[in-house]
Amino acid sequence: MMVKARIYRPAKTAMQSGRARTRKWVLDFEPDQAKVTDPLIGWIGSADMNGQVRITFDSREDAIAFAERNALDYEVSAAHERHLVLKNYADKFAFDRVR
Question: What is the pTM of this model?
Fold first, then answer.
């Protein structure tokens, strides 16, 4: 049985102003089993231990090398680069500004 892994670079969360934790690549595993609800307490859980594993790497190539070295079936997602729109503060007060 091949373990399916996902390699990606996480995006910045909406609650995050800085770019920390967005430069590293992450390898995590796809779940093998569906999550089940405990009938007594109502908590959701699974017996799949790979769902708790999340490994970070400095580069995409390091993550791919790790997956190949451990015979993991992996899928690489492209990194989303942010696009900056540079604006001047003075443009808010320009005479010909469209409102």
Answer: 0.71
